[in-house]
């Protein structure tokens, strides 16, 4: 176990009484406790998992993607999969359910928690909504939620229910079905409808509201939603920092403001690049298009430092429960930015190594202790999954916030 | 009757059957119909009415104030009176109820609709709240609402319930009791509490939310309040334009955005000065302090043009139901600005004359017609109060939206 200063909110103590097959206490034995997973969600947008799970790319590309996924699985425990309506169901009635299901299952089998992103958004929504009346659009959106949330229940129990509502009704780059109905329902109204439908289909799911707007607008919107009784489980905050790292002060100011609600906070879409910064005058990040946006050694060092600081600040904050870096790899990254932890050739950047060290060493509990005369041992560790090894025997267990004395049979 | 283009939403048709004392139809007589008041509220902040109603200033000042009030009464039908807690109850338990009641009664006797401003605000709130716990502050705020709303029921049935909530919890110029509790309750939470208490005390009152913030922040706040079931009767929009007239485009854009809710809109605090403009870099208008801010002939012409355009745009908008100019006179105007319709010496500016012409001539119905063989006449007019004169007899009536054929006895 490494650095646990200021991490008491992520830790628990546990007393274990070890007994053998015969029910006798295991007395005076050395025991090694190893944390195998975090309760905290360290995630990435990892759309490449679709290729790997479905093996529907040429062999050399598949091998490359498999190598990429190995690097991902070595560090992370959460994945965000794309449910952009325009791509998920480009032709009405022909959703890519099978492909995405295979992917979610492939990730679940590897102990990865999967989130679906997003169920409702004005960007990348189904173009065929444009031919419909507002009533038909709303009906289609509900049907989409019902179908997909039910289809993926058990595989995906965390959803970005609705994305970027602050701008939704005033989004004017192009006409789209979702902006149309958001104008009629209003911001809180459309959130209420989408959350109600999603909750109805998966009552125990973790449901997020997600936005890139971190201003007072988003605060007031959340305040309104909560007062209107909308069951938001976690506040999703995007943090695409193509124009430069926010820095400690801004980050803590945002955390402070969004902590007032007492809800869990997920950093849902984080970007820190290892390239030159996007000019500050760009308002919509999508407007910045460059032929080449290289990752450079100098900027890779900067990225590593920023990743280390930002993840450390967030991990220390009691309400933050998840950090998702949006692009795991530079290969295929949004806007062509060098936003990944690994380069286009799958070689890990310094940021990958820094974060792996934080997650797997500094914040990972590994202790050796001895059972007493009653066969009991006590330890304190970061919340998550554990493996206990005693001589040639082992047992797995979970360390949760409310850990009590537990008797374990070791085989 | 003057200019009624685009004013159909402010008009109604009425058929009247005139009968004499004996119940006989008044046949073939010339009838003059004169509008004596508007349904639309044309108001001012007219705190000077306190002096006049209570006669508690020296004789020469009283005469000056009476002259001022005469000019006010000649044009307007609505008055806003101050209920700033710091001034209304500077010493806990000693509210200026008697003075304000006399004033409200004085105005009511002159057919003026009175609004109280405001019941809850972080600025000019009672300084003695600072010694209390948050629970005590909330209790005191409730008690204040209960006392004042009940005391003034029948005299004041329109209230700015809560003022400037967008900035309220992040207001950091100085510590105050209301900002403290707004941080705990949240924006929608404090609005909900204040509206519930006010509504409880005066179920039929017209209750306003009021703000100077006309950005998307205020829109989202209103959206949240309405979805939380808060019974807002009218949206209050401040429009202190010390830094320059908004102009038609901005005004129409704001009207457009705040019309989405379908609620009545009141322009609660309007300022258009007849002096130099406050520099654009000033963010909090209170920060601009000058020794002298003269009203000049050139700028008085500008003010008159702006008043004419702005009032015309607002009067034409179907959801606007009230316009209150914040300072009737330059004498005692907020920030010392030449913001009044009359100068410091009570002489009317061009803006006074322009507005009087709009309210009393252009938008005022005066028609002459003849009763038919059944004693009936039909006319169309602006909504409001009327006097009907036939020879030496007269009768008063109201022209409301749902006017039906009405039999009137003329004496």
TrEMBL record, chains A, B:
Top-tier EC class: hydrolase
Domain GH10 stretches: 54-358
EC number: 3.2.1.8
Reactions listed under catalytic activity: Endohydrolysis of (1->4)-beta-D-xylosidic linkages in xylans
UniProt KW Translocase keyword: no
UniProt KW keywords: Carbohydrate metabolism, Glycosidase, Hydrolase, Polysaccharide degradation, Signal, Xylan degradation
PANTHER family in alphabetical order: BETA-XYLANASE (PTHR31490:SF88), GLYCOSYL HYDROLASE (PTHR31490)
Family recorded in the similarity comment: Belongs to the glycosyl hydrolase 10 (cellulase F) family.
Name listed for the protein in its UniProt record: Beta-xylanase
Species, as recorded: Evansella vedderi
